[in-house]
Amino acid sequence: AAAVVFAVVSQYLALADNLEVVASLFLGRVLVGRAGALDEVRMEERCRTLLDSLSVTTLRSVRAPVASLSGGQRQAIAVARASTTSAAIAFPLARTLLRDRVEAFARERS
After folding, report:
1. Phi and psi at residue 5, in whole multiples of 5°?
2. Distance CA 70, CA 75 (A)
3. Which residues contact 5 (CB under 8 A, 6 or more apart)?
4. Crossing angle for the helix pair 71-82 and 40-53, nearest 10 degrees?
5. Which residue from 77, 72, 75 is spatially nearest to 61, judged by alpha carbons?
6. By CB atoms within 10 Å of each CB, which of 1, 4, 10, 55 scores lowest?
7. Backbone angles phi, psi at 109, to 5 degrees
Protein backbone atom coordinates (compact mmCIF):
# COMPACT_ATOMS: atom_id res chain seq x y z
CA ALA A 1 0.00 0.00 0.00
CA ALA A 2 1.23 3.48 -0.82
CA ALA A 3 1.78 5.91 2.02
CA VAL A 4 -0.22 9.12 2.00
CA VAL A 5 1.27 12.23 3.60
CA PHE A 6 -1.11 14.86 4.96
CA ALA A 7 -0.30 18.51 5.56
CA VAL A 8 -2.58 19.83 8.27
CA VAL A 9 -3.56 23.48 8.32
CA SER A 10 -4.36 24.37 11.90
CA GLN A 11 -7.31 26.53 12.80
CA TYR A 12 -4.67 28.58 14.64
CA LEU A 13 -2.83 29.62 11.51
CA ALA A 14 0.93 29.34 11.76
CA LEU A 15 1.73 32.60 10.01
CA ALA A 16 4.00 35.41 11.14
CA ASP A 17 2.01 38.64 11.51
CA ASN A 18 5.17 40.73 11.45
CA LEU A 19 6.29 39.37 8.05
CA GLU A 20 5.11 39.96 4.51
CA VAL A 21 2.99 37.29 2.83
CA VAL A 22 5.87 35.92 0.76
CA ALA A 23 8.21 35.73 3.77
CA SER A 24 5.57 34.04 5.92
CA LEU A 25 4.78 31.56 3.14
CA PHE A 26 8.40 30.45 2.90
CA LEU A 27 9.24 30.77 6.60
CA GLY A 28 11.73 28.03 7.47
CA ARG A 29 12.10 26.89 3.86
CA VAL A 30 13.36 29.84 1.87
CA LEU A 31 14.55 29.51 -1.70
CA VAL A 32 18.19 30.34 -2.34
CA GLY A 33 20.06 31.11 -5.53
CA ARG A 34 23.38 29.77 -6.79
CA ALA A 35 25.47 31.99 -4.52
CA GLY A 36 23.44 30.91 -1.49
CA ALA A 37 21.63 34.25 -1.30
CA LEU A 38 17.90 34.52 -0.74
CA ASP A 39 16.11 34.25 -4.11
CA GLU A 40 13.33 36.77 -3.49
CA VAL A 41 12.29 36.98 -7.14
CA ARG A 42 11.72 33.22 -7.37
CA MET A 43 9.93 33.22 -3.99
CA GLU A 44 7.58 36.01 -5.15
CA GLU A 45 6.86 34.18 -8.42
CA ARG A 46 6.19 30.89 -6.60
CA CYS A 47 4.00 32.70 -4.07
CA ARG A 48 1.89 34.29 -6.81
CA THR A 49 1.62 30.94 -8.63
CA LEU A 50 0.45 29.18 -5.46
CA LEU A 51 -2.09 31.89 -4.67
CA ASP A 52 -3.35 31.93 -8.27
CA SER A 53 -3.82 28.14 -8.10
CA LEU A 54 -6.04 28.69 -5.04
CA SER A 55 -7.96 31.47 -6.84
CA VAL A 56 -6.90 34.11 -4.34
CA THR A 57 -7.91 37.32 -6.07
CA THR A 58 -8.28 39.76 -3.16
CA LEU A 59 -4.62 40.00 -2.18
CA ARG A 60 -3.12 43.19 -3.58
CA SER A 61 0.51 42.29 -3.07
CA VAL A 62 2.60 39.37 -1.84
CA ARG A 63 4.58 42.06 -0.02
CA ALA A 64 1.57 42.98 2.15
CA PRO A 65 2.08 42.40 5.88
CA VAL A 66 0.24 39.31 7.12
CA ALA A 67 -1.17 41.41 9.98
CA SER A 68 -3.16 43.46 7.42
CA LEU A 69 -4.95 40.46 5.89
CA SER A 70 -8.50 39.28 6.47
CA GLY A 71 -9.19 35.88 8.04
CA GLY A 72 -9.97 34.34 4.65
CA GLN A 73 -6.79 35.71 3.13
CA ARG A 74 -4.77 34.35 6.05
CA GLN A 75 -6.37 30.94 5.60
CA ALA A 76 -5.50 30.98 1.90
CA ILE A 77 -1.87 31.81 2.76
CA ALA A 78 -1.78 28.97 5.31
CA VAL A 79 -3.15 26.50 2.74
CA ALA A 80 -0.63 27.75 0.17
CA ARG A 81 2.12 27.31 2.78
CA ALA A 82 1.02 23.70 3.38
CA SER A 83 1.02 23.07 -0.37
CA THR A 84 4.73 23.92 -0.57
CA THR A 85 5.44 20.56 1.09
CA SER A 86 5.22 17.17 -0.60
CA ALA A 87 1.95 16.42 1.17
CA ALA A 88 -0.95 15.08 -0.84
CA ILE A 89 -3.75 16.95 0.93
CA ALA A 90 -4.15 20.01 3.14
CA PHE A 91 -7.06 20.19 5.58
CA PRO A 92 -8.09 23.63 6.88
CA LEU A 93 -10.32 22.05 9.50
CA ALA A 94 -10.85 21.88 13.23
CA ARG A 95 -9.24 18.89 14.95
CA THR A 96 -12.38 16.74 15.40
CA LEU A 97 -13.61 17.28 11.86
CA LEU A 98 -10.09 16.65 10.60
CA ARG A 99 -9.94 13.29 12.36
CA ASP A 100 -13.30 12.28 10.85
CA ARG A 101 -12.20 13.33 7.36
CA VAL A 102 -8.85 11.54 7.61
CA GLU A 103 -10.54 8.35 8.81
CA ALA A 104 -13.08 8.53 5.97
CA PHE A 105 -10.30 9.12 3.45
CA ALA A 106 -8.37 6.14 4.82
CA ARG A 107 -11.47 3.91 4.55
CA GLU A 108 -11.98 4.97 0.92
CA ARG A 109 -8.35 4.10 0.12
CA SER A 110 -8.47 0.60 1.68
Report:
1. -105, 130
2. 9
3. 85, 86, 87, 88
4. 110
5. 77
6. 1
7. -80, -20
